[in-house]
Specification:
Blueprint: H1 2-11, H2 13-37, H3 48-80, H4 92-122, H5 128-151, H6 154-183
Helix pairs in contact: 1-2, 2-3, 2-6, 3-4, 4-5, 5-6
């Protein structure tokens, strides 16, 4: 089974990114809502909204694969120009550099797009205050998490990113519950 998975992610990098992020990103979101509401909620009656959210996650999975490739090249280019520290490829600091730039350049665009599509699917207005909180997750969660992602071989990166989505969902659900308790 593991061999089949590895073959799939190596042979079909964009499709496997869409599938992994589509499924596990949606699961992470469902878990966060479950923790916050103390019940399962699938974003409204019927499967349509859940399916649309999964499609958005799948689309984002493809953009992640493109962004990962682009930001590795970006780091190589700015190191070659002398605009960044001369860190060795494959090192912790190389992975941290890719993660840092990916999250400060691509991250806000991703978070805003994802929040916008979520709100459209659920028929909600854009909450800019909560968007600011989501942007901060790029600093406290995603830069460290994606550093671990970028240390891995390229064909395993999206898989770990998908698992980090679930971990973030659990944390955000927990934080929402704690925030609500503090208000009471």
């Amino acid at each position: 089974m593991i061999e089949s998975y590895l073959n799939f992610v190596k042979e079909y990098p964009l499709l496997s990114s869409a599938v992994q992020i589509g499924i596990l990103g949606t699961i992470g979101e469902l878990i966060a809502v479950r923790i916050r509401l103390k019940r399962w909620y699938f974003f409204g009656p019927g499967p349509v909204k859940l399916f649309l959210k999964m499609l958005v996650w799948a689309f984002l999975g493809i953009t992640f694969k493109y962004a990962f490739t682009g930001f590795f090249a970006y780091i190589d280019a700015i190191i070659a120009k002398g605009w960044w520290f001369n860190v060795a490829k494959g090192s912790f600091f190389y992975a941290l550099s890719v993660s840092f730039f990916a999250n400060i350049i691509y991250g806000p665009v991703f978070v805003t797009f994802h929040r916008f599509t979520d709100n459209k699917i659920e028929g909600k207005e854009m909450d800019w205050n909560s968007l600011t909180k989501a942007w901060w997750s790029l600093v406290w969660f995603w830069i460290p998490a994606m550093t671990t992602v970028f240390i891995l071989p390229k064909h395993l990166q999206i898989g770990l990113l998908s698992l980090w989505n679930i971990a973030l969902g659990i944390m955000l659900g927990y934080f929402a519950v704690q925030s609500q308790k503090n208000k009471e």
